[in-house]
Design goal:
290 residues; alpha/beta; Arc Repressor Mutant, subunit A; D-Maltodextrin-Binding Protein, domain 2; seven-stranded mixed β-sheet; two-stranded antiparallel ribbon; 9 helices; 40% helix
């Protein structure tokens, strides 16, 4: 018998997956915590698999739970598209989108092209900038939707992809640890710059800002030219650069979250909901370089 997945249960599961907390998921969805537990249990019954490990101290996903994230997003996106179609709510108006500039190298532009083809009455206002700047624009009601990075430890937005942050240089990069390491960085506020500085400070490694770039193309050019080293999400490293390995004796940078955030004032507009559904339905592959 084919399993039937309830959209409400899938929404609850995604909230738990994003917050790693039944309490926070309940608060986000405006429901009671026992209802969250009931939804997860019913979803596990429908799938025949354990999706969530929970104890008194923590909540984590099983391997099947990680797999369910992509399926849940696709099912909910299709559900939203069908509901909008039969309600006759054709998206229209102007949609203000923010995109982290390094994500312009991914499949996101193709998603925007397909969205515009399917929603010809929607005009796009696209802002490409650093994630820190775009966070402020969203908070100040100057964007409807933003796709980019979020600071470590924050839980706002819908997680699209969790990515390892890696050091990058060029094929001939050699580091002299007796001197301050030359860094190629974005202006503050910059999530990757902060991650590099925190990791180096934690290991008492000296460094200097050898080059400050205002866009990803400038950063790629500077690192490729050998001016310094930098950090990028692993799947976004372009062919001109090389991930630096253990022989370079650099500290681990941890991970970075690539997320979709919506403006609470406009997130219920059909255009915002339609683009949100399109990005989430594309899953992690939408935020990887072609």
């Amino acid at each position: 018998m084919t399993a039937m997945y309830d959209p409400a249960q899938l929404q609850t599961f995604l909230a738990v997956a994003q917050t790693r907390s039944f309490t926070q998921a309940a608060a986000r969805l405006g429901i009671r915590q026992p209802t969250v537990s009931q939804h997860i249990r019913k979803l596990e019954d429908a799938s025949g698999r354990m999706l969530v490990h929970r104890d008194t101290h923590s909540v984590s996903l099983t391997g099947d739970g990680e797999a369910m994230i992509g399926f849940a997003r696709s099912i909910l996106a299709a559900h939203e598209q069908a509901a909008s179609y039969f309600r006759g709510e054709r998206p229209h108006g102007r949609l203000r989108i923010g995109m982290s500039d390094d994500l312009a190298l991914t499949r996101l532009p193709q998603i925007l092209r397909d969205f515009r083809r399917d929603n010809p009455k929607v005009d796009l206002d696209l802002t490409i900038d650093q994630s820190g700047t775009l966070h402020r624009r969203l908070e100040n009601d100057r964007l409807d939707l933003f796709v980019g990075k979020r600071p470590r430890g924050e839980h706002a937005g819908q997680l699209v992809k969790r990515e390892r942050l890696v050091w990058v240089g060029n094929a001939s990069t050699r580091l002299d640890h007796s001197r301050p390491l030359p860094l190629v960085v974005y202006p503050l506020p910059s999530i990757s710059r902060t991650a590099m500085q925190n990791a180096l400070d934690a290991t008492n490694t000296t460094y200097r800002s050898a080059c400050i770039c205002r866009g990803v193309n400038g950063l790629i050019a500077a690192v490729a030219a050998g001016i310094g080293i930098s950090a990028m999400a692993k799947s976004l490293v372009p062919v001109q650069l090389t991930p630096l390995g253990g022989q370079h004796r650099l500290p681990e940078l941890g991970h970075i979250d690539l997320v979709l955030l919506t403006n609470p004032r406009t997130e219920h507009r059909p255009a915002t909901k339609a683009l949100t559904a399109a990005v989430l339905a594309s899953g992690p592959s939408s935020l990887a370089a072609p």
